[in-house]
Write a structure and sequence with these properties.
With about 425 residues, the chain is an alpha/beta fold. It folds into three domains: about 5-45 and about 60-80 and about 190-270 and about 370-420, FAD/NAD(P)-binding domain (3-Layer(bba) Sandwich), CATH 3.50.50; about 105-185, Alpha-Beta Complex (Polyamine Oxidase, Chain A, domain 2); about 275-360, Polyamine Oxidase, Chain A, domain 2 (Alpha-Beta Complex). It has 13 helices and 20 strands. The strands form five sheets. It has a seven-stranded mixed beta sheet with strand order 8-7-16-17-18-15-19, sandwiched between helices. A five-stranded parallel beta sheet has the order 10-2-1-14-20, covered by helices on one side. It has a three-stranded antiparallel beta sheet with strand order 5-9-6. Helix 1 packs parallel to helix 8 (about 195-205) and helix 1 packs parallel to helix 13.
Length: about 425
């Protein structure tokens, strides 16, 4: 009888746990190691002052129950409930909050016609190519629709909320629009981020795998196929899945094993950076299960209300709101000050009815997007080692949806499924 293939997964973010779940379900002997005392990376619950905050995400999935992440969860039979947002989004502009469809009235007849044609082209997969694909996404929209303040502010707000950047290449923006047209808007995870990653860990355990916390990898010996941990314990593998970032994986193996061009490419990758504000507001729901894109604000790009479907995330008598903005500078004190001023503009009675629970700043560290959207990373050049997570997102895949698309490609390379219908 043949011995079971051994798989070691370094890092327990969504990418690592998704891949580990499929490996365990396909009779691999799976061990997930995580340096933190908790699992989930930036998709974990954080209990703070009686509120269920998160380590990074917004208790939300970009394409709700219809996107690639939800598809993988369904294949696993995961007990996770994602509730699609209604409406898909709202807009704060001109001092008024309204349904996203009302945004069309801010375009002239000529601009509307151009926008409709652009959306039709994207639906038909007529996407930017060559030099056009690499140009600024904002500039591409300006060329295709016109110099419209509302459109530019909306794109900026959308990207700041969804990708923690204020611009991406045209091809990335086009594919993110294509994804929204194909899979729809976001949805909140019932119970928050931790309900999802906790269920994936349960699937690994129930399938005979192990998920070990407080276990830090300090070296990957690719020749001997083993992972060495900080306590000198060694784990041998047939397949290694790395969910700790592509640059970090290169460092664990040793830069001397990679050619100069590859290292130059890896070193050029930039993270996405932002600030998340967790606030409590007295009283009932404010906007419900949706996202509000805040076009009027200097820094805040958008906000949502996770407690609208998960009241257990908040204390009685309060609702939980999470706001976010993509960093515009490394002057964090200034960035936070302007962000807080925006909060007071969004909620004029904030001093009387609300309080800031926690401000989380995400720079080039953990948990954060180590590779911002729009930066393609080719397959890892070391045999039997696969990168998952935000360092290997599929084009057009927003945040965890991009991670899910990357996991699909990894599963295909491992012979564990076919997912080409999902690629953008």
């Amino acid at each position: 009888m043949n011995a079971r293939m051994k798989a070691v997964v370094v890092g327990s973010g969504i990418g690592g746990l998704l891949t580990a779940s499929f490996l365990a379900r396909n009779d691999y002997e799976v061990t997930v190691i995580e340096k933190s005392p908790f699992i989930g990376g930036r998709f974990a619950n954080l209990n703070y002052r009686g509120f269920g905050l998160s380590t990074g995400a917004f208790h939300m999935v970009p394409h709700g129950e219809n996107g690639p992440l939800a598809h993988l969860l369904s294949l696993l039979g995961a007990s996770v409930r994602i509730v699609n947002s209604k409406p898909k989004g709202m807009i704060l502009y001109g001092g008024r909050t309204f349904h996203y469809r009302e945004g069309w009235k801010y375009l002239s007849l000529k601009e509307k016609a151009k926008a409709v044609k652009l959306l039709a082209d994207i639906r038909r997969n007529k996407l930017p190519e060559g030099e056009e694909a690499e140009m600024s996404g904002t500039e591409w929209i300006r060329e295709r629709i016109g110099d419209n303040e509302f459109v530019e502010l909306f794109i900026r707000s959308f990207l700041g909320w969804a990708d923690s950047v204020l611009d991406v290449p045209a091809i990335e923006l086009a594919k993110e629009i294509k994804a929204a047209l194909r899979w729809g808007g976001p949805g909140l995870v019932k119970g928050g981020c931790g309900a999802l990653t906790g269920e994936l860990a349960r699937i690994v355990w129930m399938s005979g795998g192990r998920v070990l916390t407080k276990k830090k990898a300090v070296e990957i010996d690719a020749e001997a196929k083993k992972v060495i941990m900080s306590n000198n314990e060694e784990l041998r593998y047939d397949v290694l899945i790395s969910n700790v970032g592509i640059r970090e994986t290169v460092e664990l193996i040793g830069r001397r094993y990679f050619d100069r061009d590859y290292l130059k490419r890896i070193d050029s990758l930039k993270p996405s950076e932002g600030i998340k504000y967790n606030i409590a507001l007295r009283g009932s729901q404010r906007v419900g299960n949706t996202v509000v894109f805040t076009l009027d604000m200097e820094r805040i790009n958008g906000y949502n209300e996770p407690s609208s479907i998960s009241p257990e995330l908040t204390k009685e008598g309060y609702t939980l709101v999470m706001l976010h903005h993509a960093l515009q500078s490394r002057n964090i004190r200034k960035e936070r000050r302007i962000g807080i001023e925006d909060i007071h503009r969004i909620f004029p009675n904030f001093d009387e009815e609300g309080e800031i629970l926690l401000i989380q700043t995400y720079l080039d560290g953990n948990p954060v997007n180590r590779v911002a959207s729009g930066q393609a990373v080719e397959d890892f050049p070391v045999e039997d080692i696969y990168i998952v997570g935000d360092a290997y997102k599929g084009e057009g895949g927003i945040e965890v949806e991009g991670i899910a698309l990357g996991v699909m490609k990894t599963l295909e390379r491992l012979g564990l499924g076919r997912f080409s219908d999902w690629y953008l």
